[in-house]
């Protein structure tokens, strides 16, 4: 049985524990199971292993967050720590993961948290994971498109996916890093190259588009957003984000003006936040919420729950493009079924053609830039220069 460790503050109770031989034996067992990265983080801490008690791992899934110290990563880590389906939570980043790990590990929820810092600890962070969520990479600033992030984020995603291919090739991957329309095809290329590609397990996260669509449609209709379900298909950038307003649940009738306003607002939701943050990044809190909503659906699918359906950007035959976002049914092996788009109205048919044209370019870009994909890992200095 695995023994998981929480480091406890030195209360009188714990200090008393130290005196007993039985406890010393238990501590010896614990330290034998301690992960090297935990030990490394412990060296930076005033707490000692002598103040530990072992506990059995709760049933659940093992989840890694790569980019866990970032604007999305931190609230995402916090929300995943609350998720009862998670038994082990690995937090990996190239900076600041010890602090985030120490902070989140104090939450009195079931998941055991372990931190991993920097490339040498990537493999340890990934080994044994069921689900890997990737919000690693640089965000937009006002005036930039998501495509402007391609050069730097392509290299980051490539390195992380090489680690996944090596250490947890059967994990479900939730890819958040932008531009999703290109980073998902990049990840697919990396997995193909390593012989581990399973299209069902690679999911680009477009949930924020659905979350926004539900919110904005609910506002217009005067409904509770929790009652609204809007399918959003295509991709995750500008006109590739195509809300199917004719398929809103509960069924409703929107005027032409309302449809145009809503489509435009949903397509530009990311830019709305980037401009409001005025240089301090892009959506992080709503994205963390959306990422957790999506990850929870993936975990319920992995558990074998029936009827788990969400939108995601996946390898697809729904259109002539190799990747496309649409509703997918999530199961034990990932995206087990990909749904057709269903009947579209004229406005949506025109939107679909525009979306496909732009999306084709983003997917094509991956093939055009092998030197970007196969460059060496991004250094911390490069990241700072970008920021
Ligand atoms: N799919 C979606 O709907 C959305 C995607 N995003 C994208 O998510 C990404 C992250 O956004 P934020 O969290 O706001 O950025 P951030 O800059 O606050 O955080 C990114 C984190 O990634 C880490 N990182 C960089 N290189 C890494 C590497 N090689 N390995 C591990 N970690 C690494 C950084 O140290 C940092 O902690 C951006 O590309 C952004 O455009 C943002 C919002 C929505
Ligand atoms: O707009 C951005 O750069 C971040 C993002 O993808 C979103 O908020 O939808």
Q: Over all CA atoms, what is the radius of gyration?
A: 22 Å
Q: What is the count of structural domains? A: 2
Low-confidence stretches: 1-49
Mean pLDDT: 86
Architecture of the largest domain in CATH? Alpha-Beta Complex
Ligands and ions found: 1,4-dihydronicotinamide adenine dinucleotide, oxaloacetate ion
Beta content? 15-25%
Helix-residue proportion: 40-55%
Spatial separation of the terminal alpha carbons = 44 Å
The quaternary structure here is single chain
What does this structure look like?
- This protein has 387 residues and is of the alpha/beta class.
- The chain has 15 helices and 13 strands.
- It has helices spanning 12-19, 21-33, 36-43, 73-82, 97-105, 122-126, 150-167, 180-194, 207-221, 256-267, 269-277, 285-303, 346-368, 370-373, 380-386, and strands spanning 3-7, 52-56, 61-66, 86-93, 112-117, 131-134, 172-175, 202-204, 232-234, 241-243, 309-315, 323-331, 334-338.
- It has a six-stranded parallel beta sheet, sandwiched between helices. Strands 11-12-13 form a three-stranded antiparallel beta sheet.
- A hairpin with a 2-residue loop joins strand 12 (323-331) and strand 13 (334-338).
- The chain is globular and about 55 Å long.
- The termini are far apart.
- Mean pLDDT is 86; it is low at 1-49.
- The chain binds 1,4-dihydronicotinamide adenine dinucleotide (NAI) and oxaloacetate ion.
- Oxaloacetate ion (OAA) binds at residues 139-140, 146, 178, 208, 269-271, 273-274, 282-283.
């Amino acid at each position: 049985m695995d023994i998981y460790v929480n480091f406890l503050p030195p209360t009188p109770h714990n200090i008393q524990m130290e005196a007993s031989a039985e406890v010393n034996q238990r501590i010896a067992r614990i330290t034998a199971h301690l992960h090297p990265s935990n030990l490394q983080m412990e060296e930076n801490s005033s707490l000692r292993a002598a103040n530990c008690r072992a506990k059995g791992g709760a049933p659940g899934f093992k989840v890694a967050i790569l980019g866990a110290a970032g604007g999305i990563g931190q609230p995402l880590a916090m929300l995943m720590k609350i998720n009862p389906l998670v038994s082990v939570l690995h937090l990996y980043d190239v900076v600041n993961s010890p602090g985030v790990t120490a902070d989140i590990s104090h939450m009195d929820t079931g998941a055991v948290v372990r931190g991993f810092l920097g490339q040498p600890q990537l493999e340890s962070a990934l080994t044994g994971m069921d689900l890997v969520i990737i919000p690693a990479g640089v965000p937009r600033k006002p005036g930039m498109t998501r495509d402007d992030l391609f050069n730097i984020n392509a290299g980051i995603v490539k390195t992380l996916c090489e680690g996944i291919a090596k250490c947890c090739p059967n994990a479900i991957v939730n890819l958040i890093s932008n531009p999703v329309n290109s980073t998902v095809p990049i990840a697919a290329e990396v997995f193909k190259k390593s012989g581990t590609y399973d299209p069902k397990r690679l999911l680009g996260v477009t949930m924020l588009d659905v979350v926004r669509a539900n919110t904005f449609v609910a506002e217009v209709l005067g409904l509770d957003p929790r009652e609204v379900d809007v399918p959003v298909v295509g991709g995750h950038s500008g006109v590739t984000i195509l809300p199917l307003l004719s398929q809103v649940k509960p069924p409703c009738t929107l005027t032409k003006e309302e449809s145009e306003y809503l489509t435009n607002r949903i397509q530009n939701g990311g830019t709305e936040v980037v401009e409001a943050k005025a240089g301090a990044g892009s959506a992080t809190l709503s994205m963390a919420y959306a990422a957790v909503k999506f990850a929870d659906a993936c975990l319920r699918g992995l558990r074998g729950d029936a009827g788990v359906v969400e939108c995601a950007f996946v390898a697809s035959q729904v259109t002539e493009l190799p990747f496309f976002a649409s509703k997918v049914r999530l199961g034990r092996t990932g995206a087990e079924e990909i749904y057709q788009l269903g009947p579209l109205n004229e406005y949506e048919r025109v939107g679909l053609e525009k979306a496909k044209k732009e999306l084709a370019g983003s997917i094509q870009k991956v093939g055009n830039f092998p030197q970007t994909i196969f460059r060496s890992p991004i250094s911390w200095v490069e990241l700072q220069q970008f920021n």
